[in-house]
């Protein structure tokens, strides 16, 4: 059975990609799901985070810096046996992001409330359209994930207004919360570090949205349904 592959990407750094990647992978790792997280970022934040302790998801450090190693990297990624495979992409690399998107059925695009993030997000959406155009069908979906949102700030309060016209492509917010920072410091995922916290609830809501989106993809695509039962 082929893994459900999800890419977490933005061409701008500092948007909370690794926070979302690690905690979402671990949240999805419940209910007997086999979940793998591929850290494609040479910076290695996700790999460092999960380098000690026990997690309900497996981490694979497979950094990809440019398209020269793409073929070997793709072969390694596709050889991982799991139910859900998440890819934490590096920032500032169109080639790597495009390679990861080419394997994926769903892209999660974290963005903060800043103007530069919105510009970088537009560039990622352009890459998604490119990936769609070279496939046999329109088979790459995406969710924008408002990330590191602080509603005490003007920008944080306005982000909802900026995104509301986009409708169902906007996922649940993952807010700016101290518990996420402390969990990283302790090298624990949020469900282990603070299982009853608002931060954990953010991740639970995101995981539910991702599972719902994947179900929608599979219902709408006969080939995807066939892959799930083969």
What attributes characterize this protein structure?
230 residues, alpha/beta, Rossmann fold, seven-stranded parallel β-sheet, 7 strands
Could you provide a short overview of the structure?
The protein has ten helices and seven strands.
Describe, in plain words, how this protein is organized in 3D:
The protein is an alpha/beta fold. It has one domain: Rossmann fold. It is 47% helix and 16% strand. It contains ten helices and seven strands. Strands 3-2-4-1-5-6-7 form a seven-stranded parallel β-sheet, sandwiched between helices. The chain is globular and about 40 Å long. 43% of the residues are buried. The mean pLDDT is 85.
Low-pLDDT regions: none
Cα(first) to Cα(last) distance is 6 Å
Strand arrangement in the largest pleated sheet: 3-2-4-1-5-6-7
The mean pLDDT is: 85
- The domain tally reads 1
Shape descriptor: globular
Q: Helical segment tally?
A: 10
CATH level-3 fold name: Rossmann fold
SSE run: EHEHEHEHEHEHEHHHH
Largest sheet: 7 strands, parallel
Write the layout of secondary structure elements.
Elements: E1 4-8, H1 17-28, E2 35-39, H2 45-49, E3 58-61, H3 70-78, E4 84-88, H4 94-103, E5 106-111, H5 115-133, E6 141-149, H6 154-163, E7 174-175, H7 178-185, H8 190-193, H9 198-220, H10 222-229
Parallel strand pairs: 1-4, 1-5, 2-3, 2-4, 5-6, 6-7
């Amino acid at each position: 059975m082929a893994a459900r592959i999800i890419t977490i990407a933005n061409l701008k750094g500092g948007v909370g990609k690794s926070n979302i990647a690690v905690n979402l992978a671990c949240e999805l790792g419940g209910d007997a799901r086999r979940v793998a997280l591929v850290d494609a970022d040479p910076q290695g934040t996700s790999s460092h985070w999960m380098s000690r302790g026990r997690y309900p998801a497996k981490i694979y450090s497979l950094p990809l810096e440019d398209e020269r190693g793409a073929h070997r990297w793709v072969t390694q990624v596709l050889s991982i046996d799991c139910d859900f495979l998440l890819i934490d992409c590096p920032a500032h690399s169109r080639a790597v992001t495009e390679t990861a998107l080419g394997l994926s059925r769903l892209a999660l695009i974290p963005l903060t409330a800043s103007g530069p993030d919105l510009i970088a997000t537009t560039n990622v959406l352009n890459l998604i359209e490119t990936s769609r155009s070279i496939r046999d069908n329109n088979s790459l979906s995406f969710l924008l994930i408002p990330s590191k949102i602080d509603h005490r700030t003007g920008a944080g309060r306005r982000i909802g207004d900026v995104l509301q016209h986009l409708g169902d492509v906007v996922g649940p917010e993952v807010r700016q919360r101290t518990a996420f920072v402390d969990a990283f410091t302790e090298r624990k995922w949020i469900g282990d570090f603070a299982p009853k916290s608002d931060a954990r609830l953010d991740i639970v809501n995101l995981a539910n949205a991702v599972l719902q989106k994947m179900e929608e993809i599979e219902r709408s695509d006969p080939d995807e349904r066939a892959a799930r039962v083969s």
